[in-house]
């Protein structure tokens, strides 16, 4: 996943582009989670879609998508937006 310009790391985006067909989709996400993801995308200078694609592609290969510095930023964003749920809660989420 391209980690964005703010990290100072070389990214895979400098390689030849891989052409794909993207589709528009409507997904529902927990409100605070979406705020954290949008904040992270902004921090990494990525679109929300690019961030989600990268996270999903890494997850499907069981590879961590974020550096330790980015994980620190995620923790900060979670505090700002009051995100107090985690992976262990993922199968227990219920709508209000």
Account of the 3D structure:
The protein is an all-alpha fold and 96 residues long. The protein has a domain of 51 residues. The protein has 3 helices and no strands. The longest helix is centred in the middle third of the chain and has 14 residues.
Topology (elements, then pairings):
Blueprint: H1 31-44, H2 48-60, H3 68-81
Helix pairs in contact: 1-2, 1-3
Features of this protein?
single chain; 0% strand; 96 residues; mainly alpha
Number of H- or I-type helical stretches: 3
Distance between the termini: 34 Å
What's the β-strand tally?
Answer: 0
Radius of gyration: 14 Å
What kind of sheet is the major sheet? none
Structural class: mainly alpha
Overall body shape: globular
Strand composition percent: under 5%
Which regions are unreliable across 5 or more consecutive residues at pLDDT < 50? none
Secondary-structure element pattern, one letter each: HHH
Helix content: 40-55%
Mean pLDDT: 90
Summarize the structure.
The protein is mainly alpha-helical.
């Amino acid at each position: 996943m391209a980690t964005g310009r703010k990290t100072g790391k070389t990214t895979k985006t400098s390689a030849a582009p891989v052409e794909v067909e993207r589709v528009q989709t409507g997904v529902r996400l927990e409100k605070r989670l979406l705020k954290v993801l949008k904040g992270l995308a902004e921090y990494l200078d990525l679109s929300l879609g690019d961030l989600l694609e990268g996270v999903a592609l890494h997850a499907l290969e069981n590879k961590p998508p974020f550096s330790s510095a980015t994980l620190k930023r995620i923790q900060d964003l979670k505090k700002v937006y009051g995100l107090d749920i985690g992976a262990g809660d993922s199968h227990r989420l219920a709508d209000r």
